[in-house]
Amino acid sequence: MEPTDEEMRRIQEQFAMLDLNGSGKIEREELQELLVFLGLDPRDGQLDTLWTVLDTDEDGLISFQEFLDFVFSTGDVSFFTPSELERVREYSQKRKASRAEQTPTPETSADNEEIARLQKRVEELEAEARKRDKVVVQLQTKLQAAREEQLMQKSRQNSKDTSAEREPAGPAPAASSDEIVRLKKQLHDKQYALQRLENQQEKIVEGYVGFLHSLMESSASEQLQNYCDLKTVEMLGRGAYGFVLTCLDKDHNQKVVVKLQSPRWAAVAAQEWSHGSKCAHDNIVAHLQVLLHYDGKSELERKLEKAFDDGIFTGKRPKILPDRYICMVLEYMDRGTAQHLSKEGLLDLEGLAAITRQISSALAFIHKSKQTHNDIKPENILLRKAAAGDHLVVKLADFGLAQWSVERQRDAELMAYSLWCLGLAEPFDHMPSKEERPAAAERFEGKALLKDSRQGLRSALGKVVRDLWAGCTEMAVVAASEDFCDMQLTIHHAKHAAVEAKARQEIPPRLERQAKLWKAVHMASIVRKWSHVDDSDDAH
Fold this sequence. Notes:
Elements: H1 5-18, E1 26-27, H2 28-37, H3 46-54, E2 61-62, H4 64-73, H5 82-98, H6 115-159, H7 171-219, H8 224-227, E3 228-238, E4 242-249, E5 255-261, H9 266-276, E6 287-294, H10 299-309, E7 324-331, H11 338-343, H12 349-368, E8 371-372, E9 381-385, E10 391-396, E11 403-404, H13 409-424, H14 437-447, H15 455-470, H16 475-479, E12 489-490, H17 496-539
Antiparallel strand pairs: 1-2, 3-4, 4-5, 5-7, 6-7, 8-11, 9-10, 10-12
Helix pairs in contact: 1-5, 6-7, 12-13, 13-15, 14-15
């Protein structure tokens, strides 16, 4: 959909207001200057967040095309509010008059590095980061031990009888204090070095994303119809960074899920694919294919527009839809989520035990690969009818928040809380604190799925919840438990049609909730990185 002449004129005028030096590009300093003029503090993350969204080709400048794409993606042709427009126009005119003689900054050329060398360097940096993580943990442990030793010495000294013969206790605490100072300095230096390493790694990842942008512009073609039958497309909803649909794949005539993501979110797509595609496991939703698709004949655009017209997609409609997409093809799970089964009262203790066994097996596989999932919850535990019988196969989904890490406690806590919510039919919204968890685990052992009389199985599940919260067991141990080895998640054959239909209805709201979460986490990470850089600069 092309902008009207009037809309184009308004956008060109607003772009010129932001381009204070008349170079034809908006520079970071110019945007910062106007944010300050409008009463916003660029140090609180607003500038960094806005710049990340605007500068799609990441060349350090905002072109008119990038500005145009952003304005139309918001569904509004005005970058400024009416109250801001006149103030900014007057300010821009004054600043341009005072900077008439200023020479525009030349564009820096993009550094086009070879992909093989970048890949090798990323792997080296990841290995170095893991080593530094271990050093930081060791230093923190030593620092804590030194503090505890100092407190114990002071406690022993205070408890002694103050007699004249007793020698003053000075050297040991002094030595302990010196050790704490030394360890603090080491810890600070290692943390700073680790932050610099992470920043360097992010720069290399940015190089990958820039390469992908260039590749899409030059080489994307009409690929999706070669893999999928577009005549069978059914729109599901708006995902975290694009649109989600189902269709039949041409090779096996099976229904698959396709995520359509614009090039703007290439880094997010790469994050999910890099983790999900490496986890080929029976209890992890399969990442089947990724394609660079050019919608040259506007076939996808027409289907997306119709989905908005029919009310399948809610929210503000973009004025301009992308003509290129990163298409991620995933396995279709036809029986919804564990959350839905719990809500409908179709879950018993054996079914919960089957979920425990299969998801812990998936997480054990992920952890063995030195990855963590970080988003385990009943909504992300998806179900599919087995090829034979009435039982369901359980699979873990959504790798958008996954990380390369050996810190597994967060996954263990989320797994325990998910089982607790499913067993007690509680919403997944507030995990009990460490102080509250013993009582919460006791409640689970006494009241989880009371319609099922198998108290021994209930106690075994309760022990898993308790141990995962306490951090005293591993996922591989849970997956191999003899208490759960023969358990299956089964629903009556007469219920399958209703479960499938209801699961289909729950996909759009689930995608919307996921979109809000992922975007919030993405923006929070940008703000946190901005703040951390400021702190590091102050410290050094």
